[in-house]
Design brief:
Elements lengths: L1 H31 L2 H32 L4 H25 L7 E7 L8 E6 L2 E5 L15 E4 L2 H5 L4 E5 L5 H4 L2 H4 L7 E3 L1 H13 L8 E3 L5 E4 L2 E7 L8 E7 L2 E5 L17 H10 L1 E7 L13 H13 L4 E5 L5 H13 L3 E5 L1 H13 L9 E2 L12 E5 L9 H6 L12 E5 L8 H13 L3 E4 L13 H11 L1 E7 L3 H13 L14 E5 L4 E5 L4 E5 L2 E5 L1 H13 L1 E8 L11 E5 L8 H20 L5 H20 L4 E8 L1
Parallel strand pairs: 3-5, 5-6, 6-7, 11-12, 12-19, 13-16, 13-17, 14-15, 14-16, 17-18, 24-26
Antiparallel strand pairs: 1-2, 1-20, 2-3, 4-22, 8-9, 9-10, 10-11, 20-21, 22-23, 24-25
Length: 650
Amino acid sequence: MNTNNRNTSKNEQKKKKNDTDILDSAVKKYAKLDMTKAGEMKKNQKENGESKKKSKSKKENTKSESSKKTSGNDKNNTVRRKKNVSNSKRRQGQKNIQPVLPVRIGFLGGLNEVGKNLTVIEYGEDIIIIDCGLAFPDSTMLGVDLVIPDFTYIEKNKDRIRGIFVTHGHEDHIGGIPYLLDVVNVPLYSTQLTIGLIEAKLKEAKKLSKAKLKVISAGDKIKAGGFTVEAIHMNHSIPDALAFAIKCGAGTIVHTGDFKIDCTPIDGGMADLARLGELGNEGVLCLMSDSTNSERPGYTESERKVGESFENLFRRAGKRRLIVATFASNVHRVQQIINVAESLGRKVALSGRSLENVVAIGQQLGYLNVPKGIIIGIDAIKQYADDELVLITTGSQGEPMSALTRMAMSDHRKVSIGPNDCVIISANPIPGNEKTVGNVINELMKLGAHVVYERMYDVHVSGHACQEEQKIILGLVKPKFFIPVHGEQKHLQKHALTAQLMGIPKSNIVLTSNGNCVSLFEDDYTVTDIPAGNVFVDGYGVGDVGSVVLRDRKLLSEDGIIVVSIVLDSLTGYLVSEPQIYSKGFIFMKESSELFNEMNSRIVRITDSYSDKGRHDINSLRNKVRDDISRFVYDRTKKSPVILPVISEV
């Protein structure tokens, strides 16, 4: 009897283990199901549970009768009851499994364009912002100074925003911050140099005192509501660039920021590829990666390559004066220019307010090593011979008001270009700026200057990763979903193809646009719309200029304006005097007197017709004059000037 009991006990324990394994497997399988399947499973469990209760009741009645026969069976019944209690607890645990919320990534700028980068990431009730940049106006945006993102969505959700995280200090990533802080004032996190550049912008805008700026370093982890944001060191054309690993309940999102992989960087710190690999091994839900150079095969050259080119060009310049145009924020480039100038005994002068600000901040924070006495004021350049000078200037993108453009147009108050000047343009034209940069080069050459630009010598290397570097990041991070960012459509699509080559399924690659919000689930995603667009900054006005104003400016710039002044008697409605016609930007009036006389006659006929019929509706008369003169002028000249009737009564 004892032997039988021991065998029975072993069988029961084995059965218990098998049942436990089955339940564990079911729990794991259940946890992976979406909510629809989970609901169906709960319903089945309920039905199965009721069935099991009936079955259990019958079994317990049978066991109760059998228990009178042997005490060994009593022991077995106790084991089964314990197992049933344990199973009940497991089923209860399954019912308490909570759904994982999707993480939402909204794009307010930076897609299908180069500039104006702004991304919002949402989880539950919490939102963080990545970067807030600006873009420069194109040729259609007449009179516009800057273009910033539309903050409507941010303003609507400002109570949910937990922080702003900035990858680096370029204008297309920080230029919109003074305007953003008018909408939402939350802590802003970035590295020391980036914060220094932001401080300068806020100080100029008189907004620094209220800003909550927090300096962080690579490796720091910041808690922001339901997010934990980790800063990761990256290489770029400006020091202190970061990527961010953003962790929340839905998983980990990696945003590379602008980057390249430079094995011999000027600041001595290579990108932290090891940490990106660790994150990839831990599991990354989504990667957002810089697409600017996705059309370029191979690798981006090291910044040190430019220093070698400067050394050669400076020595070959001989007795010429050297003028180097570069991005104001390219601290590494400025450092190399200063180093070579010092080695050749040349003084350095700066031209351009933004450049002067960056150099001052770089020196103050220790990012620039400037030997004492090497930098002189722009007013002092006349005290030195040409072969004793190097001028560093802004304007590498052909910006209309930049120092280099003013030099090329002979409009600079301190610098006049001549045959003894060697101008080095140490930058690539940003897509869309090729024509303006070409115009500046042509004007400099007309003045006799020798001009060196990137296609001729290695005077510029990009700060953005080429295809092989993009592959390295994709291979290290191993994301489930991939969203190419920072680039025009052709850049985004090319980056998407690279991701497919690296094994990411096409169905998991999201090509999206500004104004889209991507909701990422465990195995799928959806795309919805959010408010986004361009806001034009014109002088002190923000958002005052819209499409209607730009259209009017375009018309004025193309065909000019005709102003018609009409004075009526308030009692009779008839003309008090002959209509007066003024033209600007249309045609020269003295040479077209016949045309203007005919216009005058038509205006008199229209006005008299209205007065004869007893009409005194000024608005109707104004519309009639505008429409009639517009048709007449177009028929005679094939031009469409703006017609502006001004009607007054006396």
